[in-house]
Amino acid sequence: MKMEDHKLKVFCTVVETKSFSKTSEIVHLTQPAVSLQIQALEEIYETKLFDRSSSFINLTPAGEILYKYAKDILSLYAEAEKEIGKITGLIKGSITVGASTTIGNYILPSAIADFRKNHPKIKINVFIGNTKRIVDLLNSGILDFGVVEGETSRHKIKVEQLITDELVFIVPPLHHWAKKKTISILEITKEPFILREEGSGTRQMIEKYLLSHGINTSNMRIAIVLGSTESIKEAVENGMGISIVSKWAAKKEVKYGSLKVITPKEEKILRNFSLILPKNAVQSYAVDDFLSYLKSYPYDKLLSESK
Questions:
Q1: What is the pLDDT of residues 148-195, one digit of tens each?
Q2: Of 16, 39, 46, 209, which has fewest CB within 10 angstroms of its CB?
Q3: Strands 145-149 and 93-99: what pairing?
Q4: What would you measure as the largest C-alpha separation in the chain, in angstroms?
């Protein structure tokens, strides 16, 4: 971003997150640098934009006026860049994408690397969080679009299915299931199981599937509850139990033989990965191009590369 629009973007992000620390995370600046950007705007307008007298960050009347116009200005910048890009054929700019954990860690990096081979002038920032956090950031205008797993509320956003995800059993190579291709979900109660933390989209999906087969997690032998897919894979590799993760998350370990994947005999555990977009926002030429690329990307080749 150029001219004063970067300061305005920082200002709008502080307003929408109500936090200097969250803003610094999103705009990739230190907290003191965020404060300096706000200070610079306050010097330009010779007035305070935020009331810092309470523990909450509230806008002053001048801040309210600036916020209203800043949103319009940033939208006009995006429109201008898009129109000029159409004439010049030069696609450049910055894209901010929100991605939920599985997609952000195991799928997007390859797609972005391939995209940038032909679009080196486009800078892509990826913010990883759970689906709810990504929806909140999108609604705040901080993200250009999101790629998330599981269900999303459609309030204020457009949702488009991108690809299907499959969840599978993972076991260490010497486990007595390791040579099987499929196994009944009912066998899961006999094994120590490693579960994701409460609030995880993957855990919700697993619990829903288990309940549809009459299995409650309270009847299972839960060995340990862990907060990330990476820590779960490591625990399974070390023989602490079995687990269920996305096929995408296990592709590297399958390739190198440190984990085996098995499909439930009953039916596959499937969910959608979806694109989420603001309903009425003007997307830049760069964002449009990247969205088209993601919709036509050969995702299956990433899984076949792991075999």
A1: 987 666 667 888 889 989 999 999 999 999 999 999 999 999 999 999
A2: 46
A3: parallel
A4: 72
Does pLDDT of 4 surpass 60? Answer: no
Task: Give the tens place of pLDDT for each residue, 76-94.
Answer: 877 777 777 667 655 567 8
- Enter the tokens of residue 66: 């600036």
Up-side HSE of residue 118: CA atoms within 13 Å toward CB?
7
150: left (phi over 0), alpha (psi -120 to 50) or beta: left
Query: Six-digit token pair at 175?
Result: 């486990």
Highest-confidence segment of 161-170, 193-202, 296-305: 161-170
User: For residue 129, what pLDDT band results from cuts at 50, 70 and 90?
Assistant: confident
CA separation for the pair 88, 84 (Å, rounded): 6
Domain range 1-88, its CATH number among 1.10.10.10, 3.40.190.10, 2.30.42.10, 3.20.20.70: 1.10.10.10
Span(s) in the chain for CATH 1.10.10.10: 1-88
Closest listed residue to residue 189, CA positions, set 212, 210, 165, 158? 210
- Alpha-carbon distance of 194 to 185, in angstroms, equals 15
List for the chain the helix, strand, coil content (%; round to 5).
Answer: 45, 25, 30
Inter-residue contact 93 to 81 (CB < 8 Å): yes
CATH architecture label of 165-270: 3-Layer(aba) Sandwich (3.40)
H helix and E strand count, the chain: 12, 12
